[in-house]
Amino acid sequence: MTDTPVLSVRDLVVDFPLRRGNFRALDGVSFDIAAGEVLGVVGESGAGKSMTGAAVIGLLEPPGRITAGEVHLSGTRIDTLPPAQMQALRGKRIGMVMQDPLTSLNPLFTIGDQLVETIRQHMDLSEDQALERAISLLEEAGIPDARGRIHAYPHQFSGGMRQRVVIALAIAADPELVIADEPTSALDVSVQAQVIKVLKDLCQRRGTAVMLITHDMGVIAQIADRIMVMNAGRVVETGPVAQVIRHPREDYTIKLISSIPTIARTGEPPPPPAQDSAPAFVQVQGLVKDFDAGGGWLARVLGRAVPPFRAVNDVSFRIARGETYGLVGESGSGKSTCARMIAGLIEPTAGRVVVNGMDVWQVSAAERARRRAVQMIFQDPYASLNPRWRVGNIIAEPIRVLGLAKGSEIEDRVADLLRKVRLDPIVMRKFPHEFSGGQRQRIAIARALSSQPEFIVCDEPTSALDVSVQAQVLDLMSELQGEFGLTYLLISHNLAVIRQMANDVGVLHRGVLVESGPVDAIFDHPQADYTRMLLDAVPDLADIE
Amino acid sequence: MLIFIVRRLLQSVIVMLVVALIAFLIFRYVGDPIVSMAGVDTRLEDQELMRERLGLNDPFYIQFWNFLTNALHGDFGISYRLQQPAMRLILDRLPATIELAVVSATLALVLGVLMGIFTALRARSFLSGVIMTLSLVGVSLPTFLIGIGLIYIFAVELQWLPSNGRGTTVQLGWWRTGFLTESGLRSLILPAITLSLFQMTLIMRLVRAEMLEVLRSDYIRFARARGLPDRVINFRHALKNTLVPVITITGLQLGSVIAFAIVTETVFQWPGVGSLFINSVQAVDVPVMATYLMMVGLVFVTINLVVDILYYLVDPRLRVQGKGR
Fold first, then answer.
1. How far apart are the CA of A167 and the nearest CA of chain B, in angstroms?
2. Closest CB to B218 among A103, A156, A296
3. Is Acetylation one of the keywords UniProt gives this record (chain A) (predicted)?
4. A144 φ/ψ angles, rounded to the nearest 5 degrees
């Protein structure tokens, strides 16, 4: 018991004095992290996870401030340090990794510049020594050819590589504690697994304590030693990972864990697919989309034209009426491009999309019918609703445009739709910003349903939502499917969501459909190497012993 | 990079051709040149003869071609009013305008950027509030009023500075400069301030807005989390990112400082191209107006080209796209 923990937080309270009274963001948070230990902090958005990290490193956004409690770093109290000393401590004794690797590096400086600058800030090294250290840090973080790439700019690296650079920056001065705030949420699963491994290896080798903030239980399960569950600014439960996940004590933890979709089959397998002879409701044949990769006419004249980039390459599949087809793949695999072509938003370079016997891109007379029969739900419920319109108007717009109802009948329909997505019809007078993410996605679903479509293209409908909300939205989608006999094309990077929702699944890799078939067959017996790699990379709670 | 510059150059040539066409159309179709040249008692046969000799009966494209070739040789015709080559008139007056524009643009840029940074970093301080309020005055007061106000205070009441003209000038080759004499420099102060005030407040507000935006970004937060001192964060990381959009606007504004110094030059009786232009408009002196139009076009095209190249140098992301993937 002689070991002092690296980080010790006692009864931390963070207040935001606002005009309309005080908002208490953190309320009596206490925890310890020992040297070499990884503490996973989970909770839904707004639970105060990131706030805890920011409070520890002394970077609370004003007007937020610590009003009570203590933060000790290796036995020294740091929350009362003057700003200048706190700044000297950041980077040197506490490192930080932020969520989005695409925006956390300064785009106008080379990664070498940024590393050397940080190293020389904290260590008494010459320019050359600092550069050497930077190169070895990058090598440790798993960047191939670090020496050759040290003078590259951030945009010349992929997301995963950039996050390695960020990790290298965070540990540049050998801090005792690293705060990793959602380090992998912006990355693809396969990359996510690599980055987690890098973080864990580096910290283990140096005996660095890690505070890992994430909403993804799978990530915690892979890397953390202990877990701390937060809700509404309070600590709900703390304990070893396996214990909390297997035997959660608190109601909130139980609810949180049960709402995480798992990639293993739970419940009833979907009914066997209808015979192939049954006419497919949606049929996609040889879909191709090329994007002009730029260059312009002068480059073409000078013979330096760039060949067009083929985003989607010969994709074919079919969906039977009333079923769900899941399309998975990593970012850049062409999922969303496929979705837009199928929904009729961008024109394919080649190929056919036949919905209910009508070719979406050939029969121009069918356009009106298609607009009615095919609808889309987008990923970001914050960006896909017009912020200046009332909810009632947003939902009524397709009804008006398509002339499906007139006068007061419209309002009745909107009220009916809101009831269907389990919202009170009274909300039609409100604006989108008055709703939470999950409620907004319900509004988006109500809008999609308003034209009484038969086929809905859902592009990552839940990836911007918290797990418990995700579970509710997915349940709602299943119920509506049963109620109205809807056909879904569900696009997601989350394999667990696809497993729970889809009948059939297609795996996209660089625009090519590498595998397509019934979901159980593919998930249990993947044929393509890429599918196997994807499945292996998924962190799963079931793996915890 | 080379392809990029060549492409921009070709675009510039197209723009200049369009400007030339408009200048030519003014030249040719705003009133009949023969009528303005000939007296009341010139016989119709003589008028016809002049028409023939000046090539005004040729088809449109031949006339345009002649105009272009002449323009390339610096020949824009003879000023109706002053009976001198229009090009020479402009060139004689250009140094005065350029000196005024350069001084006021530098003033605007330096003070504007400095005050912009200050008001962004100390957004809540009292001095920032004062600067922001005054900048509103600078944006909303018309230039001529500022000029007249300055003349009233510093030239009429205090009698510190001259109210008009360039003072004593020195001839350096074809360039007539006011930089080398005390009276020349003193004469420059008031018009330069007048001309720069609007640009200065504009640049300041732009820098402030951009800087506030950049300071909220993730990479600045991450730089803080790495323990970099405020000085490095503000002046190295934030400022360089702020400058990217500022360069564009400033470049365009610089163009308008040169091109539209008209009001300031008129108020201060500054012998530059702006006041020449105003006098030419009053006298319907078409060749001078056409030349002025071409010159302004050239200034804007050149500045835009320079701005694009600067953009390229500041932002590495553009460089890579230029090379192709």
1. 11
2. A103
3. no
4. -65, 145
* Structure confidence by residue, pLDDT tens digits, A233-280: 889 999 998 888 888 888 888 888 888 877 776 656 555 555 555 567
Q: Which of B107, B300, B100 is nearest to B197 (CA)?
A: B107
Across all residues in chain B, what is the average pLDDT?
82
A168 contact B CB<8A: no
Exposure string of B118-151, with b = 16+ CB inside 10 Å and e = fewer, is bbbbeeeeeebeebbeebeebeeeebeebbbebb
* CB contacts, 8 Å: B325 with chain A: 293, 306
pLDDT in the model for residue B31: 65
Our CA dihedral for B151, B155, B156, B160, rounded to 10 degrees, sits at 150
HEC profile of B35-80: HHHCCCCCCHHHHHHHHHHCCCCCCHHHHHHHHHHHHHCCCCCECC
Question: Chain A contacts of B229, Cβ < 8 Å?
Answer: 87, 121
Helix (H) or strand (E) holding A200: helix A189-206
Looking at 3.40.50.300, 3.40.50.2000, 1.20.120.530, 1.10.238.10, the CATH number of the domain A35-45+83-258 comes to 3.40.50.300
- A153 neighbourhood in chain B, CB within 8 Å: 316-317, 320
- Using 70 as the pLDDT threshold, list the residues of chain B that sit under it: 1, 27, 30-40, 259-260, 319-325
Q: Is the ipTM of this complex over 0.85?
A: no
Which residues between 95 and 154 in chain B have a beta carbon less than 8 angstroms from any beta carbon of chain A? none
